[in-house]
Amino acid sequence: MNAKKSKKNSESQVVGKPVGASRSEMAEVVLPAQTNALGKLLGGHVMHLVDIAAAMAAHRHSNSYVVTASVDSIDFRNPVSLGEIVMLKSQVNRVFRTSMEVGVEVYSENVLTGERKHTTSAYVTFVAIDEKTLLPNAVRPLIVKTPDEKRRYEEAAERRKTRLALRYRAEDRTT
Q1: Fewer Cβ within 10 Å of end Cβ, the chain: N or C?
Q2: What is the pLDDT of residues 41-97, one digit of tens each?
Q3: What's the structural domain count of the chain?
């Protein structure tokens, strides 16, 4: 009985982390091997970078291993050209029990002119994994402070609701 009580007390005392603790940034120069015949960064490479940047934010918040569970959306707004710098910014938008939604924004910078463009936005969901059991692990709460953080927090709940409603379920198969 004491072990159950102790576990319950320790769970109720889990300290949250602010959004800022998960914020991550990365950048790299677009090289020829990463571009298509038009000299534009391959969409698949952008998706790869988005997954890495998002995972960094999820790791930082959860302090655990994480696996990609879902990509709700990835919107390509502007191309990134050969020789430009591609910059990714990510942060945890909301924490559920074992999962986290991470928002990623991608920007390009022309090194000759300094012009920056917002090129891509994405929402990626990760599940925290226990390092010993490899099972989903509870994630500490997210502390939201600013109006923008609160807006992202609320919008993440709506995206999750939609994602779960659309999830393919074996019992719905008609084969």
Answers
A1: C
A2: 999 999 999 999 999 999 999 999 999 999 988 999 999 999 999 999 999 999 999
A3: 1
